Amino acid sequence: xxxxxxxLIIDDEVQIRRLLEITLSSNGYKISEAATGKxxxxxxxxxxxxxxxxxxxxxxxxxxxxxxxxxxxxxxPIIILSVRNSEEDIIHALDNGANDYLTKPFRTGELLAxxxxxxxxVQNISDKPILEFGSLSIDLTNHIVRKNSELLKLTSTExxxxxxxxxxxxxxxxxxxxxxxxxxxxxxEQTQYLRVFIAQLRKKVEDDPARPKLLNTESGIGYRFGS
Length: 227
Known about the structure:
Blueprint: E1 6-10, H1 14-25, E2 30-34, H2 37-47, E3 51-54, H3 63-70, E4 78-82, H4 87-95, E5 100-103, H5 108-125, E6 130-133, E7 136-139, E8 144-147, E9 150-151, H6 156-167, E10 172-174, H7 175-182, H8 191-205, E11 215-218, E12 222-225
């Protein structure tokens, strides 16, 4: 019998922790809790959670600092759950290693969906030579992309962009992160440049480029591959 996987909740609000405990326990997870950043770091190191839900407004250490400390060694998903809802706060968290960002108040169904997506993302991080998304197939080793078994003609830059997004399925990648990874530091402000390439890719990989299901825009922030 498989033991339940542990999710760590780092949040100083008792009501939020109780709500998450009830919701996640009823969905088969074991819960670990911490009300401060310091206790959260200890819990992450000792309880080996499969995912961390992190509040930014902690009483002792700002959540962004906790996020940075976790990302020095913790490779599994971190979902931010915070009342901070400015574009700047969201981008800052995502650029510092958060996999996703939800604002309070939140819907438990949406949180569960984001947890499922983040878990799938971890599975895709393993060095799979071929990623498949419905009719789309991406061969990472041979740099070959097929849709409905037909070979797509992609430039090397288009392939790099598509593979970066696909390997991070479900994760919001900021404009700056994508530009840095695909084009280099000298291009991190060229968001219009990125929009042009995304539009080109949509014409090649989407069934309906005007209603994308794979290359989704996160307004003002970046892009998310898939749901």
